[in-house]
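Entry 12.
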Amino acid sequence: MRPGIRLKVVSEPDDDGLFQFEINISNGRTNAALEFWGYSDNFAQFGSGLTDFPKTIRDKVTYELGGKDKDAQRWAYYLLLEAFCYDATGQSAIKVKVENKFDIPTYESNEFFIKSEPASINRLGQGLKKWNPVDSKEFEWTSNE
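Predicted 3D structure (tokens):
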């Protein structure tokens, strides 16, 4: 997989309006995947924050789902996506942390970074902000370094 993020609807919303999603993330060398539940607007706020990233060199835009610790709110998973600048010239990356809370031997934990130009991260934000899983079952973004 090229560096980027792919979201897919695994199952239509249940009676509470929750979709089952699958996310696949890669930096071109390392890949992570996770299935999780969320509403149709799950990524809209994160997308809005990314559309004008970075406002300053210290700007961070974060999407976090689930619990970090094994017993945190009894979540079955943890997902972190955090856009940030890693140098004074505005070079940017997205920190990725994906962890399922399964027992060994099916437990998985991945942490890596996707280098990306701010304009490409802005494009990710615009796409996430507009994505409606009711109308389109997949969303894909490819990073431009």
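Annotation: The beta strands are 4-11, 19-26, 31-38, 60-66, 77-85, 92-100, 109-116, 138-142. The radius of gyration is 15 Å.
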